[in-house]
Write a structure and sequence with these properties.
The structure is a single chain. This protein is globular. The protein has helices at 3-18, 22-30, 35-50, 52-62, 69-84, 90-105, 109-122, 130-138, 142-152, 154-162, 179-188, 209-213, 222-231, 249-257, 270-283, 333-351, 373-382; strands spanning 169-172, 193-196, 199-202, 217-219, 238-242, 261-267, 288-292, 306-312, 354-364, 386-388, 400-402, 414-420. The strands form 2 sheets. Strands 5, 6, 7, 8, 9, 10, 11 and 12 form an 8-stranded mixed sheet that branches. A 4-stranded antiparallel sheet has the order 2-3-1-4. Helix 8 (130-138) crosses helix 9. The protein has 422 residues and is α/β, with parallel strands linked by helices. The chain has 4 domains: 3-122, N-utilizing Substance Protein B Homolog, Chain A (Orthogonal Bundle); 130-162, no CATH class; 169-218; 224-420, Vaccinia Virus protein VP39 (Rossmann fold).
């Protein structure tokens, strides 16, 4: 049996049926493989997820009944091998996938064999126009594509859903490293990297593993750094609350940049609080206190305590889909409709923790307006003691800014800065 197919199946089964994060599940498998197998398994897993809507379309037309989850994953693997693994002849892809099925669910091997042979005949027969065609190219369900078209218009909506970038951005440790040292490391090792205002876009983090372990550099999205700039004043003094902080990138960056800043960093889950703590230790910062706290529950002790409060709210995450293609797998219309309710609650509670004339920042990593500008507008309507304030170090804005994915390193982040004026 093809072991790479088996490893890929185990990761995909973890993601599809158990709701695991793709990067975590894949990382747990790749570490024990040879470089060649690691490359193959990585390609298989990402390839299957990045063509999810194509497989859904083909399975629906080829199967009279919806196959069980296990069989769907096997079929998707087989279809990917047949269409996109040019080094494997079609018959070999079918045979290897059938052998995989025999090892996992033997009684379905004949069904898988027949379905994949039927797929070979129609694999290039896909919709050429219309919503279904756009959904397949975007790798998003039709209802999600419609959201973008309704909000941004046909041309811009289609561009947003079909243009994706897989950004890996490295920044240096503000206390113990520098741009020059990172630049020298890149040049001395002959690595490919693209300059950004706060670091470098790189193809992968593996060549920087030693620097990352030593806490000299770390991976942090460029837009995430912009959000930090929007929050804290130049002197970097006072007390800051990061209400939804894990894994801790923004808390750690600001604590690192401003030693006089005291940061309280929260998450509702203990294991994610541990992620913040380990991140802070790796980067050598002691002015971060990571605690377990549910942001939807009011804490009377924090009333009017903080100079800066950040609500980096749970969101649909659709602005970073290029780097996280599994984001769309478990998104439903009902779940997306529930998010603004949660976001408004978090923002309303967080506002009570801001000192007079303090700063409140709301951010997400999505470009859907109902999670962004609509949430902020509703909040300001109900809280006249706050007002939007322009963000000086960012592109022209009046207190709210939507980034869209581009080749310069930006993803689909949103940020709004508000000052408590009463």
């Amino acid at each position: 049996m093809n072991n790479c197919l088996l490893f890929a199946y185990n990761v995909l089964d973890d993601v599809y049926r158990r709701g695991a994060y793709l990067s975590q599940s894949l990382g747990g498998v790749l570490g024990g493989l040879s470089p060649r197998d690691r490359k193959t398994v990585n390609r298989l897993v990402l390839g299957v997820v990045e063509h999810e809507e194509e497989w859904n379309y083909q399975i629906a037309r080829l199967c009279k009944k919806n196959p069980k989850s296990v069989v769907r994953v096997i079929l998707k693997l087989g279809m990917y091998c047949i269409k996109y693994m040019s080094s494997m002849p079609d018959y070999a892809s079918v045979n290897d996938t059938v052998e995989l099925c025999k090892a996992i669910k033997r009684e379905q091997a004949g069904f898988v064999n027949a379905t994949l042979k039927g797929y070979i005949e129609v694999m290039d027969d896909l919709p050429k126009s219309g919503l279904e065609s756009l959904a397949i190219r975007a790798n998003m369900p039709v209802w999600m594509v419609n959201l973008y078209l309704d909000q941004y218009g046909v041309e811009e909506g289609a561009r947003l859903v079909t243009t994706k970038y897989n950004h890996t951005h490295l920044r240096w440790n503000e206390r113990s490293f520098s741009r020059l040292k990172l630049k020298n490391y890149i040049e001395q090792n002959g690595l490919a990297a693209k300059d950004t205002p706060h670091g470098y876009l790189v193809g992968a983090t593996e060549p920087y593993g030693e620097l990352i372990q030593q806490g000299l550099v770390t991976a942090q999205a460029l837009d995430s750094i912009y959000i930090c700039q929007a929050l804290v004043e130049e002197d970097g003094k006072g007390e800051m609350l990061d209400l939804c902080a894990a894994p801790g990138g923004k808390s750690v960056y600001l604590a690192e940049k401003y030693p006089a800043l005291t940061v309280t960093s929260c998450d509702v889950h203990p294991h994610r609080v541990s992620l913040i703590q380990s991140y802070a230790r790796r980067m050598g910062v002691a002015n971060v206190e990571a605690i377990c706290h549910d942001g939807t529950e009011y804490n009377e002790e924090w009333e009017g305590k903080f100079d800066y409060v950040l609500v980096d709210a749970p969101c649909s995450g659709l602005g970073v889909i290029g780097s996280n293609p599994d984001i769309v797998l478990n998104r439903t219309e009902d779940a997306l409709k529930a998010l603004p309710v949660l976001q408004k609650r978090l923002l309303s509670i967080a506002s009570r923790y801001v000192k007079p004339y303090g700063v409140l920042v709301y951010s997400t990593c999505t470009n859907l307006r109902e999670e962004n500008g609509n949430v902020v507008t509703a909040f300001l309507r109900e809280h006249p003691e706050f007002a939007l304030q322009s963000m000086r170090n960012l592109p022209d804005n009046e207190g709210m800014l939507q980034f869209t994915p581009d080749e310069e390193g930006n993803d689909g982040f949103f940020v709004a800065r508000m000052r408590k004026i009463k």
